[in-house]
Amino acid sequence: TRKVTTHRLMEMKERGEKISMLTSYDYTTARIVDEAGVDAILVGDSASNVMAGNVTTLPITVDQMIYHARSVVRGVKRALVVVDMPFGSYQADPFDGVRNAMRMMKETGADALKLEGGEEVIEAIRKIIGAGVPVMGHLGLMPQSINKYGTYGVRAKGDAEADKLLRDAKLLEEAGCFGLVLEKIPAALAQQVTESLHIPVIGIGAGGATDGQVLVVADMLGMTKGFSPKFLRRYADLNAVMTDAIGQYVTDVKSGGFPNESEQY
Ligand code: KIV
Ligand code: NA
């Protein structure tokens, strides 16, 4: 099993081979996701919601992202591991961004980082890439800006926001990003961006024309409840599987059926 590189993702785009990406935040899940053959694993700051139960991604810290990323890296042999830089770790000062990026790479062994934003954060992105760190961009719905938007609705439906997104995507490619995530934008716009860039574009809620797809693993496995945007396809109902298994365990403990003769010393 040869390790997937950022270069390999670029080749996949050239060949027209679609790229599969999923999130992971812990060793056990990352190992399953990697062995199942996913090309890239995102240690998303969605860990703030999925792992910690926060309402937004804003509270998660660099130290917490490092803990999640180290755990994931230990479980992965093949997939490219990309880690989200959290809110506040690169927006205030580009040099802060470089220092945080260095820490996140040194202390985790991850392959690359992802940052949200275009023109506003382009200096940080240029300097981080300049320091030798592969960076993935993220445009469209940017959950770290939820307090600015006020809603998790579809972005760039109007011409002004769509034009800015196209300019930002070009800017990110020129800055040397190896890939770009587009979240929750019209499929036609995502197709336009995908066709106008040489770097691979990975979509979530951005239609089928992008070079690849990413989903939050807990969502696509059906572990999370009450989150059903139409882009989310559920490939399993782990919530039901886990609830049934745990309910059975409780029943067995209460009845004295667990453990039995062969399950004791
Ligand atoms: O944090 C995350 O899970 C993400 C994906 C939704 C792209 O950024
Ligand atoms: Na994220």
TrEMBL record:
Pathway: Cofactor biosynthesis; (R)-pantothenate biosynthesis; (R)-pantoate from 3-methyl-2-oxobutanoate: step 1/2. InterPro entries: Pantoate_hydroxy_MeTrfase (IPR003700), Pyrv/PenolPyrv_kinase-like_dom (IPR015813), Pyrv_kinase-like_dom_sf (IPR040442). GO terms for molecular function: 3-methyl-2-oxobutanoate hydroxymethyltransferase activity. This is 3-methyl-2-oxobutanoate hydroxymethyltransferase. Pfam families: Pantoate_transf. It comes from the Bacteria. Belongs to the PanB family. Catalyzes the reversible reaction in which hydroxymethyl group from 5,10-methylenetetrahydrofolate is transferred onto alpha-ketoisovalerate to form ketopantoate. Mg(2+) binds at residues 45, 84, 116. It comes from Phocaeicola intestinalis. It catalyses: (6R)-5,10-methylene-5,6,7,8-tetrahydrofolate + 3-methyl-2-oxobutanoate + H2O = 2-dehydropantoate + (6S)-5,6,7,8-tetrahydrofolate. The lineage of its organism: Bacteria, Pseudomonadati, Bacteroidota, Bacteroidia, Bacteroidales. It is found in: Cytoplasm. The keyword ATP-binding does not apply. Transmembrane segments: none annotated. HAMAP family: PanB. The gene is panB.
